[in-house]
Specification:
The chain is mainly α. The chain has helices spanning 3-10, 38-52, 58-71, 76-88, 92-105, 110-122, 126-137, 144-156, 160-173, 178-190, 194-207, 213-230, 233-246, 251-262. 71% of the residues lie in helices and 0% in strands.
Length: 263
């Protein structure tokens, strides 16, 4: 799983003002903000409902979010949701600006910080993505997804120790976190510690629920790449084939199986 995909799973619509105006997640220090304008909140809630109905409602949702911001420029959740909408349409600059505005209002809000890291990574600015993720993981209640994403950035920069540190910290808090195990397996494969990588990936497969087909396909694909590194093309083919069998639209496994057939 790429960092962009990991973070995209965490970038979701926010209705935090319904919980507490200017409030947020428990265990996270949040900026004290004045009570939100009730009409602005209603506009934002209506926009979120429209967004959940699908892309064809995005224009109406955007208009309502802009109206919410007009009514209450300090409603950071409205800026954040506008960023989510822009990101869904691949308007990366607009999304980045919306997330930045949300952070200006509440620098301690983890949601726009995580989302801003995803956009920076997608735009090719891994340094900015790493900076934002590092800012998040320093917090006591850092989201586990932020640590996994930072592990991805470290691994891609060949900072193996940093990647392992972040992934292992996730496992301390969530021993059955398969995505953390997958990252550890990838690090050991990159370091050519093939036997250890195989043990880690096997454990990941054992922990997966039967309905976690997408994640299982990713682990099997990684197993296939590991077997290729070890020179066992038959085992690699079987792993790629297994990934495709449970997730027919998973392109990396199809491409990898095709490369095996061509060689």
């Amino acid at each position: 799983m790429t960092l962009a995909r990991i973070l995209a799973l965490s970038v979701s619509l926010s209705l935090l003002p319904l919980v507490a105006c200017g409030g947020g997640n428990q265990g996270t220090t949040r900026t004290e903000l004045p009570p939100a304008n009730p009409e602005a909140v209603r506009e934002m809630v209506a926009a979120v409902r429209l967004m959940k109905r699908g892309p064809r409602f995005n224009r109406r949702a955007r208009n309502r979010l802009r109206r919410a911001i007009e009514l209450d420029p300090q409603l950071w959740e409205a800026h954040y949701n506008l960023g989510v909408l822009e990101r869904s349409e691949e308007n990366l600059d607009a999304a980045s600006a919306a997330f930045a505005r949300a952070l200006e209002i509440d620098p301690n809000a983890p949601e726009p910080l995580l989302a801003a890291a995803e956009v920076a990574y997608t735009q090719g600015d891994r340094g900015a993505a790493a900076d934002r993720l590092q800012s998040l993981v320093r917090r006591e209640a850092a989201p586990l997804d932020a640590r996994i994403a930072l592990a991805v950035v470290y691994r891609e920069n060949e900072n193996w120790d940093g990647a392992l540190e972040q992934a292992r910290e996730v496992l301390v808090r969530d021993p059955s976190n398969v995505r953390a195990l997958l990252e550890i397996g990838r690090v050991y494969r990159a370091r050519e510690q093939h036997d250890v990588a195989r043990l880690v990936l096997d454990k990941a497969l054992l922990l997966l629920d039967d309905d976690a087909t997408a994640l299982r396909a990713q682990v099997l694909n990684e197993r296939g790449l590991l077997e290729l590194d070890r020179g066992d093309t038959q085992a690699a083919f079987e792993a790629f084939e297994g990934a495709i069998a449970i997730h027919p639209t998973y392109k990396p496994a199809r491409m990898n199986m095709g490369s095996v057939l061509l060689n």
